[in-house]
Amino acid sequence: MSDTGSEQTEAWTILRMLQWTTDHLKKYGSSSPRLDAEVLFAHARNCQRIDLYAAFNEDPPEAVKAIFRDLVKRRAKGEPVAYLVGKKEFFSLSFLVNNACLIPRNETEHIITECIDRIKKNPPQSPLRIADVCTGSGCIAVTIAKECQRLGFPAELIAIDLSTQALEVAKQNIQLHNVQNSVKALQGDLLDVTPGATPEAIPENSCDFILSNPPYISDEEYLKLDKSVRDYEPKIALVSSPSGLEIIRRLIDQAAAKLKTGGWLIFEHSPMIAQECNSLLLQSKTPTGPWADIRLVKDLAGLARVSIARKP
Ligand SMILES: C[S@@+](CC[C@H](N)C(=O)[O-])C[C@H]1O[C@@H](n2cnc3c(N)ncnc32)[C@H](O)[C@@H]1O
Predict the structure, then answer these.
(1) The whole model's pTM is what?
(2) What would the pLDDT profile of 25-55 be if each residue is shown by its tens digit?
(3) Are 135 and 158 in contact (CB under 8 A)?
(4) CA-CA distance, 212 to 281, in Å (whole number)?
(5) Distance between Cα 25 and ligand 1 center (Å)
(6) Ligand 1 centroid vs 190 CA: distance in angstroms?
(7) What CATH number belongs to 87-310?
(8) Fold observed for domain 5-77
(9) Strand 155-161 relative to strand 128-133: parallel, antiparallel, unpaired?
């Protein structure tokens, strides 16, 4: 983005910068270079992306160009757009993110729809108790809280994470979306909440739903992940060592105790371990019998992405 030779007289309008940046980011391997350019420019100009369309011919102030140039340099090195702009959309809500938490993914929205569909089919008589285990940015807990509010179902949610830094992000999102009355963020190892944080925070047989997008990447798969994921997203959010199944196995065991009779466990996994997750559910037992209604849900790409089971 520097004027040289015959280009000297042509102004660096927003449109020209977007076109130049699109080509540049494409060369550096972005799979969505135009979108990246627009999101980054809107962030630098402190406006909505849609506002750019009415301002294509504007020659923006040098300060905006300088911010944009810096963002583009970082993006070209692989830094995810969501971390650069500090937010990511999930289920049509905007979530604050930083490199202490995973960037929410679209696939995870299946957990929301599967949970809300079940609540709607069987409206609760008393406030629902829902745990979001491995909450990260808090996107699952906050979205469920907002959906329950919208539908008029009272709900108490617990959002748990092992990482204090991730939990800080979850707390910010709980405030941002004004659900602090219904969502409590707690540090814990899966459903084992820090002793003393809240005595008896999650008693046995107490949860209507246990939702989770846990770490599920094996050591081997981790090495094959996109470099920008490995370089920027927290390893603790991704890897369950060594096979990818260790955390899910513990989650299934703990959920068997913490769910009420009739309560649902809904969790995400990699399609590569979908059959193993299914087998774990089929082989393990809850205190009230074998898991019931075991199901695999496919994502929009047709890959088995979410497992569901009910405590009988
Ligand atoms: C895949 S991320 C999911 C984040 C968020 N729920 C989402 O869907 O975007 C997994 C999260 O689990 C947390 N985590 C890892 N091991 C954990 C454990 N043993 N107990 C609780 N949280 C854990 C990580 O810190 C990370 O925030």
Answers:
(1) 0.95
(2) 999 999 999 999 999 999 999 999 999 999 9
(3) no
(4) 15
(5) 30
(6) 9
(7) 3.40.50.150
(8) Helicase, Ruva Protein; domain 3 (1.10.8)
(9) parallel
